[in-house]
Amino acid sequence: MPAIPEDHVLTPDERACPILWLVTAGAAGTPGIAVDVSDDAMHYALGPGNSRALKSFGHDDDGVHFLLLRNGTPGLHTDIAYARYTHQLVLRNDGTRVRGLLAHDDEWHPPMYPGTMYCLDTWSPHTSHPDPRMNPDLPRTGFMKAVIAVDRSEPLNPTEAWRLLARYTTRQFRDFQVTRRPPRGAAAHADG
Length: 192
Description:
By secondary structure, this protein is α+β, with helices and mostly antiparallel strands. The chain has a single domain (19-188), classed as Jelly Rolls, CATH 2.60.120.10. The chain is 10% helix and 24% strand. The protein is built from 3 helices and 8 strands, in the order βαβββββββαα. The strands form 2 sheets. The protein has a 6-stranded antiparallel beta sheet with strand order 1-6-4-8-3-2. β2 and β3 form a beta hairpin. The chain starts with 18 loop residues before the first strand and ends with a helix.
């Protein structure tokens, strides 16, 4: 996860806005999502406390997995050790958004409420950042986010992504062993 300075000049392969597409569930929410994302369930994977944490676990044969974060990412970065595009279905978000370079942060994506699904170019500079539109009264320590994710070398469209991500909407974090580190190298670039 190489650190990227805010004055970074984008290369031709990098995007100013790292989110390729985003779809929201709307007022009715997303029916059928039954994943327990309570604090207790999150602590099972992340451990107790408010320290920064990231856990990726439960990878199936197609690479579908859970990804949990506490206190966001450590700053602007790229994830070139992994497949380029991550497709994520938000299960819980205590108040973060994704942004690229601050110089290109003039248009914000819609709030990432549970049920939001998006495709992120992880090889373009990005960070998770507090979103004041969500839970403005929430203390900015220990905020957590949980998603179902699948990574690919090429972007999927929302229908293709949903077809894969939906299979984990009734699974639980405790169904899986939580590993210390997410897979890297060839395992992270597997396209299922």
